[in-house]
Amino acid sequence: MADFDVEPGAARDNVLVASESFENFEQMSSSLEEIMSVNAISTAAEIEDDTTTNTQEDITHNQENGSEINEKQEDVENSLDWTNKRKHIFVISTAGKPIYSRYGNEDKLAWLFGVMLGLFRYSRDSIKSIHAGDTTYVFLSKKPLILVAVSKTGECVNQLTLQLNYVFNQIVSMLTLKRLTKIYDEKANYDLRRLLTGVDRLIDHLLDFSENEPAFTLGAIQCLPLAISERDSISKIIKDACSKIRNLVFAILLGNNRLISLVQMKKYHLHPADLHLIFNLVQATESLKYSESWTPLCLPRFDNSGYLYAHVSYLADDCQACLLLLTVEKDVFFPLSEAKQKIVEKLRMGNNLEHINTSLAALEESALATGFPELRHYLYKCKSTVQFYQPALCPPYTKNKVRLIELYKRAHQKMHCPTRPLKLSFERSSDEAVFSWDTKGFELYAVFEPLIDTASAINCVSKLLNWIKKREDKLFHLNAYTF
Amino acid sequence: MTATDDSMDDDVFETQEDTDNKLKLLENSIDRKADTRSPTGYRGYKPPTEVLNLCKTNVLDDVQIVIHKTILLGDSGVGKTSLLVKFDTGKFESGKFSATVGIGFTTKVVEVDDTKVKLQIWDTAGQERFRSVTHAYYRDAHALLLLYDVTNKHSFDNIRAWLGEISDYAQDDVAIMLLGNKADCGTERAVRRELGERLAKEYNVAFMETSAKSGQNVELAFHAVAKELKCRRDGHKDPNRFNVQDYIREQTQDNSAVQQCPPCSY
């Protein structure tokens, strides 16, 4: 096996908050107030543990046949189609008001919400999952909401809970947890959909996105490949242009769902889960391309109690990278708009735009093309920097990416199963061979041709790690810049 | 390689409290943007001389440019962004835009009686949760385009509430134009044209029906606003001053004589 002092992709300064992918989302920091009182000495302990402890035990009911939910299908239009969906996601308020259903009109599903709420209440809110045949029902109570997943995808409870957490965070990012709690404190039967107009589309997109991108399972971010000097130069331009703007917290440049550059205020770090929400927002909102936008945005992992304000714009007509400037100030659209112009000018003068364009246009190489003929695809995650790299898709997964992602989800689950986590696994099936390796510094998941023997697989992995190490400064965002 | 040129650093980014200063800065930046935009972004790219000349003349013209702030308002989903994109780029793509987040900023130069008027257009999100952000921009607006969807009665019923908000937050002399969008809808129509006209009359605001899809009246809506604002700015105080309603009637007469509101009394 390859031997490194430091795992590929590790860096001295962490750009993002390192986290375990399955960690619960209860930890939230309250960074906003801190920044507002700029000169106050901040304490290192920003993390306050939430009141709800996670000691609830899994209650697993094994039911012989499918649940009663399936029997009431005639109530819903296109019922067969509806029941055959592989994964349903529902959001209800604690009072039982429908808020969101991934498929179908949630108003017509009132009966179903009643059943779910009844079950949940009956168990005194302690139910976490129900397993019935090939269907898994997962409940997540996030006061004042209850989220439910009904899945036939074979994902484990942890992974479904993670997805539900993302849905909850998406809602919080639009309203803030403070406001959400306040609304329900004042009026328990409030119809939240009034405030969430348009958010259903964001949630729809988030769910599809999380089923198509390994980033969510890994809890990591992928960067746009750029020479280290290039990335540094871009970060420096952003830093210089924004250095005089007070209370600017994050400047994020992204393109094609890849991070190009991230500059942050000293002492503050962006959490990958927040960055995923930002990627989702940018990707799902077409209108951002047509104008400079200014919007309040709550980053739940950063601070769920208040808004940051985001100036969002694409760099130029000829460079489709999206720049977000996030500040705590409410009314600095024009200074930020100015700063953006300046950034674009300097990037143009330094030919950085050209390089970004080249990298955006270049298709990532497949594993095959980089000299690993038996390797179909892989994910490499550097744990300390929470960044990962994946090569381009190649057959047989080009047409069915979801299958590959589900393969990875199974492998990931094996490595992170709470009762019996594995460190190393090599599993061969008639379709492919999957190698998973979890070390202190990195995680690697590799999908090989099914006929590969163990020795060549290990040999290949070792070569691959060397290959990544050699390119780490291009594939990962290594140097952190701060305002 | 560090490509930044430190000599270029300057202190432009002090917080500018003064709105006029902000405006000037903004104008500069927009002009600069127009100058530096190149079709390729590649090093050493030089636009042909005639293009450069064009740019130069533009810069000269821009000196006399008048800036007007216009805000698009209305319920979520009535087509504010579609209308703006149609006006800005001439394109319409059905169902493409998911809800606007917060507020979007676009500028567009239109020509009114041989003078250029720069419209700064704020496209707002219709959702309730963004109200606090959008309210902050009402105050600076010179004109408001208030949209409803002629296929959605509810969006029309909300117009009174919108007008109430406008009177709470906007300047008293703001130019308001009521637009019934999606006029191409055919049988799906839920709000008759006369209803819109009557409401507009009641509040003494200009009215027309538009369609971002077919392009009907899209240019006209923005041009009428620009014209109205320009006339106000020129200080036409006499009774024969430009009247936006008359202008609209004049402009739409040719193609929509049939749709004209019949006289209310026999």
Task: Describe what you observe in this structure.
Chain A: InterPro entries: FUZ/MON1/HPS1_longin_1, FUZ/MON1/HPS1_longin_2, FUZ/MON1/HPS1_longin_3, Mon1. Chain A: Residues 247-345 form the FUZ/MON1/HPS1 second Longin domain. Chain A: Residues 52-68 have a biased composition (Polar residues). Chain A: Belongs to the MON1/SAND family. The complex is a heterodimer of chains A (483) and B (266). With 483 residues, chain A is an alpha+beta fold. Chain A has 13 helices and 20 strands. Chain A is globular and about 60 Å long. Chain A starts with 27 loop residues before the first strand and ends with a strand. Mean pLDDT of chain B is 76; it is low at 1-16, 33-39 and 256-266. Chain B has 266 residues and is an alpha/beta fold. In chain B, helix 7 links the parallel strand 5 and strand 6. Chain B has a six-stranded mixed sheet, sandwiched between helices. In chain B, helix 8 (218-234) packs antiparallel against helix 9. Chain B has nine helices and six strands, in the order H-H-E-H-E-E-H-E-H-H-E-H-E-H-H. Chains A and B meet through helix 8, strand 12, strand 13, helix 10 and helix 11 of A and helix 1, helix 3, strand 2 and helix 4 of B. Strand 12 (292-297) of chain A pairs antiparallel with strand 2 (103-112) of chain B, so a sheet runs across the interface.
List keywords for this structure.
heterodimer; A: 483 residues; alpha+beta; Beta-Lactamase; six-stranded mixed β-sheet; 20 strands; globular; B: 266 residues; alpha/beta; 9 helices; disordered N terminus; disordered C terminus; Small_GTPase (chain B); metal ion binding (chain B); small monomeric GTPase (chain B)
Amount of beta strand of chain B: 15-25%
SS class of chain B: alpha/beta
- State the helicity of chain B in percent bands: 25-40%
Distance between the termini of chain A: 40 Å
The CATH topology of the largest domain in chain A comes to: Beta-Lactamase
Largest sheet of chain B: 6 strands, mixed
The Cα radius of gyration of chain A reads 23 Å
Helix content of chain A: 25-40%
Identify the CATH architecture of the largest domain in chain A. Answer: 2-Layer Sandwich
